[in-house]
Automatic annotation (TrEMBL):
GO MF entry, a single one: dioxygenase activity
Keyword Cytoplasm in record: no
Reported cofactor(s): Fe cation
Top-level taxon of origin: Bacteria
Residue ranges with Basic and acidic residues bias: 1-12
Xref: PANTHER family: CHOLINE MONOOXYGENASE, CHLOROPLASTIC
This protein's name: Aromatic ring-hydroxylating dioxygenase subunit alpha
PROSITE patterns, A to Z: RIESKE (PS51296)
Record domain Rieske: where: 44-153
Region (Disordered): 1-22
């Protein structure tokens, strides 16, 4: 267990400027380890897209809370998750990030063999499997849920309520889940995936995503499409409010030109709007009339975070051979601009100038709420 001292009190603002976390929270490996244990090993974690594993034997290997988690599609069509550790002598079962196995999962060390449901199927040189409990020596299960076409896993022995902590978080941002239901995200297909390897602490990325104070400075294309963002307010935190497209804007594209048809379930009141949602600790979702942008973050080190971003469209749009470039380019540029800003901050987190942290202006108050959420989560 880490011996790091965790600041648990909420600093009282002395002006309208609200204190941030101190710099060490972005640089100290002991704080990162504590977050791994108390946040990422305890919360539901969006680990993959269900469609990444379409067929029996397909697997994905993801790092969650410092553990390697293996997600596998079984012969019964169900997805299951396991710790990626052989029960014999602890070898990693799969080192590839993804792939397909024909029948079973076989450890490359001494060839213990597991079924796709995790049970031990065979072990060489055992006189008989009859006296070996296949479940007892099977792979360790990790809790798994699917929602929004996404595979969420939780390493906790007793996971928190998915309805409250994941679906409830979305509902709180949108005034219910009816709005997001209209996008039928589980039916959409990945039109484009871009993986960003960001040299910044995961909290800098969350904090960046939560505010729009920076939009006028670093997002020229986005503020062209969503003029209210030029004023610096984070629209996602006005419950049920979507940022409206500018009058001259036809679609959510890099040049404001028309996108694709509005998704069939999206009602007319959302037709020219953009919604942004965060689900603590590592998901950001953007809803626009004709597609969805879904970010999953993988915090790998105190100063390194991989962000996997999917652009999701109806299968018909992809089948039509439509050119996605202008559609994808808008948020790809936003991502590059945001991650560049995060990487600019990361080296300065260890400066004595930031030892006591920085400040938030009033429109960034929800970053203060995120800070309090993190402090509370790592304190117990
Ligand atoms: Fe896996 Fe020995 S460590 S079979
Ligand atoms: Fe941004």
């Amino acid at each position: 267990m880490s011996s790091v001292e965790v600041r648990t009190e909420r600093p009282e603002p002395t002006t309208s400027l609200i204190p941030t976390l101190p710099g060490t929270h972005y640089t100290d490996p002991a704080v990162f380890e504590l977050e791994q244990q108390r946040i990422f090993q305890r919360r539901w974690f969006a680990s993959a897209r269900s469609s990444d594993l379409p067929a029996a034997g397909d697997f994905r290997n993801v790092e969650v809370g410092g553990e390697s988690v293996l997600i596998v599609r079984g012969r019964d069509g169900a997805l299951r998750a396991f710790l990626n550790v052989c029960r014999h002598r602890g070898a990693r079962l799969c080192v590839a990030g993804s792939g397909t196995v024909r029948r079973n999962l076989q450890c490359p060390y001494h060839a213990w063999t597991y079924g796709l449901d995790g049970s031990l199927v065979a072990a060489p040189n055992l006189a008989s499997m009859a006296d070996v409990d296949r479940k007892e020596y099977g792979l360790i299960d990790v809790a798994l849920q699917e929602w929004l076409g996404t595979v969420w896993v939780c390493l906790a022995d007793e996971p928190p309520s998915f309805a409250e902590t994941v679906q409830g978080a979305v509902a709180a941002r949108l005034g219910g889940t009816d709005v997001i239901d209209g996008w039928d995200i589980d039916t959409l297909a990945v039109g484009k995936r871009i993986t960003y390897d960001v040299k910044a602490n995961w909290k800098l990325i969350v904090e960046n995503f939560m505010e729009c104070y920076h939009c006028a400075t670093i997002h020229p294309e986005l503020t062209e499409v969503l003029p209210e963002f030029a004023e610096g307010y984070a629209a996602q935190y006005f419950v049920g409010h979507g940022a409206e497209f500018g009058e001259e804007i036809s679609g959510f594209t890099v040049d404001g030109s028309a996108g694709f048809g509005t998704l069939s379930g999206v009602d007319g009141s959302h037709d020219r709007r953009y919604y942004a949602i965060t689900v603590n600790p590592q998901v950001f979702v953007n809803l626009v009339p004709d597609h969805v942008i879904f970010h999953r973050m993988y915090p790998l080190a105190v100063d390194r975070t991989v962000v996997e971003c999917d652009w999701l469209y109806p299968q018909e749009v992809l089948d039509s051979g439509a050119d996605l470039t202008r559609s994808v380019d808008l948020f790809h540029r936003v991502n590059l601009q945001d991650f560049d800003a995060c990487e600019r901050c990361q080296p300065a987190m260890s400066s004595r100038a930031y030892a006591a942290g920085g400040v938030l202006v009033p429109s960034e108050h929800h970053i203060g709420e995120f800070r309090d959420w993190v402090v509370t989560a790592i304190a117990d």
